[in-house]
Amino acid sequence: MKKLTLLLTIVTNLALAQVKNGEAVPDIDFKTVLNAPLKTANLSNLKGKIVLIDFWATWCGSCIVAMPHLQQLQKKYSGKLQIITVTDETVKRTGQFLTSRPSNLWFAVDTARAIAQVFPHQLIPHDVLISADGKLIANTSPESVTDKVIDSLLNNQEVHLAEKKDNTMDYEEIIKKYFFAADTVKTRFNMMPEIKGAPGLSTTWMQDSTFKGRRLTCLNLGLTTLYRLANGDFPYSRMVDKTEKVKNQPVYCLDIIAANKADLLPMLRKELARRFDLQARVEQQTKEVYVLKINDPEKFKSIPLNTSGNRTYYSRHGEIDQQDMTMADFAEYLESYGIAKLIPVIDETKSTGKFDIKFSFQPENSASLTQILTNMGLSLEKQQRKVDMLVVYKAGV
Q1: Which of 37, 104, 176, 393 has the lowest tally of Cβ within 10 angstroms?
Q2: Cα–Cα nearest to 85, from 143, 46, 124
Q3: What's the per-residue H, E or C state across 186-218?
Q4: Which of 188, 271, 189, 257 is nearest to 223 (CA)?
């Protein structure tokens, strides 16, 4: 009986993953729903209403940007449309977000990612539009679901939405497929256009004993971002983009391997110069910055010192778990993922120690990070400093 149950579960999951536009969507079970009159819900409970499922996360900037649009739709079409956001984060974290940013949407928590398996995707936000009679209209993006689309559905008119089709392989599988390199490769440069449906990211192979420091792989990154990486990985807060702003600019993928670490970025700059007419220079500018300081030496001593010598690099918006990092490294994290909002963070702690730092905070609530820093004996103070800025511009301009 157990084998039969398992087989039926596998078959059911496969069937769920194959729902096509115009087909009936299975009766999805939203087991934990926040900010709603019900603690649980089923898709069948919502028959007669248009349903929009929005896959998101609190750390996803694009998801947060899309929220006001979704809230406007929910307000305008109350009683005719139900928007349900779905996250794989915890009830606690989702509740913290709602406390800081009240909403009129329903928030479903799905830590097992069972609902995501019904609508396979890689990138968020990812939206699923379902008709009032329970049929799949499209896997799409939140900005594609407009007032006009909802009005058309309410008037029983056919709609055609831009279909969002993600590459469901994870980034490691994508890199292996397109940029496999044997351990014996000493040097190479490969560049190609966008890999449709893949995420945008870069990796420097810091955990790889063979390629550490001498390899850089990029997926679906814009040209100015490649120039930023080629000139020492300048943070976005320290870049001045003087190139022409064009909507839907192309993105590129590349893989570069140098004979040694010192050759990597010069090689990348040379290859970019051969292909494109952009240039970059570094110039000092006086900017408003956050200065990272020690304001309580005793609390600062409570930060765990690293003893393993093992450097790790995990970080994202609202979370860090890194070992063997300096205060300069920590300042870089705060600049890229903290509350700096495109303001440089300068380390002036004068600390030479290497630390293991692990915590999470609420990006939507700056006070949560401020409190964590206070508990670490640290503070961020706004001041004026001269800062190296990377200026990217078009040749001859």
Answers
A1: 37
A2: 124
A3: CCEEEEEECCCCCCCEEECCCCCCCCCCCEEEE
A4: 271
Q: DSSP code of 334?
A: H
Helix (H, G, I), strand (E, B) or coil at 348: coil
Could you write out the DSSP letters of every residue in 217-262? Answer: EEEEEEHHHHHHHHTT---GGGEEE-S---TT--EEEEEEE-SSHH
Whether cis (ω within 30° of 0) applies to the bond prior to 125 is: yes
Distance CA 255, CA 138 (A): 34
Would you say 125 and 62 are in contact if contact means Cβ atoms under 8 Å apart?
yes
CA distances from 173 to 149, 178, 379 (A): 36, 9, 41
In this prediction, residue 397 has a pLDDT band, given cuts at 50, 70 and 90, of low
- Angstrom distance (rounded) from CA 139 to CA 154: 19
Within 10 angstroms of residue 305's Cβ, the number of other Cβ atoms is 10
Containing 315, the helix (H) or strand (E) segment is strand 314-316
> What are the φ/ψ torsions at residue 122 (nearest 5 degrees)?
-115, -40
333-363 core/surface letters (b: 16 or more CB in 10 A; e: else): bbbbbbbbeebbbbbebebeebbbbeebbbb
Whether the upstream peptide bond of residue 235 has omega within 30° of 0, thus cis, is: no
> If DSSP codes are grouped into helix, strand and coil, which group holds residue 51?
strand
Q: Checking DSSP bridges between strand 378-394 and strand 355-360, what pairing results, if any?
A: unpaired
| Euclidean distance between CA atoms 184 and 376, whole angstroms | 44
**Model-wide pTM > 0.70:** yes
- Contact call for residues 345 and 263 (beta carbons, < 8 A): no
DSSP character at residue 78 = B
Give the integer Cα–Cα distance in Å for 270 and 285. Answer: 26
Residue 276 half-sphere exposure toward CB, CA atoms < 13 A: 20
Taking the mean position of all CA atoms in its chain, how far away is CA 87? 13
Using left for φ > 0, alpha for ψ between -120 and 50, and beta otherwise, residue 185 falls in beta
